[in-house]
Amino acid sequence: MSLKQKYKLHKGKFAEIDIPQSGRWELSKKVLAAIGTGAVLLTLLVAPGTVKLLKLFDMERADFREKQKKKERIMRAIKRLKKNRLVAMYEKNGELFIELTISGKKRLLNYQLENLVLQKPSKWDGKWRIVIFDIPEKHKKAREALRHNLHRLGFYPLQRSVFAYPYSCKDEIDFVSEFFAVGNFVNYFEANYFDDDSKLKLHFQDLLD
Predict the structure, then answer these.
(1) Same domain? 198 vs 166
(2) Where exactly are the transmembrane stretches of this chain (predicted)?
(3) Which among 25, 70, 130, 177 is placed 20 to 30 Å from 201, CA to CA?
């Protein structure tokens, strides 16, 4: 799973889009995801023509009338986001662009964190992924938030600040630790050997099958 959305605007078209998908995303969240960290032509967003944007807005098989209704809903969502100062618009060379504000970028990161899941490969490679952190007391809230999210993602707590997981998840750990601004206090490594990992194998038996 890619956590960094890549948007390149070239001659009014998306060159690359990598958007996290989730059935729980409401339209406003999808609009934020489509804009990402770059500036987007408003006409391209309201009338999406790329395959990934059509898929994101559930317009792949929509007929003309359904597409018109969806475009109207997208425009209303954009207006709500603008009213809440999550997006800003500006004109350049006679065309209207839309981009996320700082608040909008923070909101998008929150949505990404909420929808973050760890992917399971087809086969376990026999290695354990260990996350260790030593976060100062002055960052207590961030430390507890990190610990909570490790539990939520399915990690097994070996100790209060040591967690284990069977599959590769470095990108996800980097994202979560940077989200809470504690990346300098978090270490991730892979263990080829783990003394008596029977308890871990029992805990993750459903994932390892």
Answers:
(1) yes
(2) 31-51
(3) 177
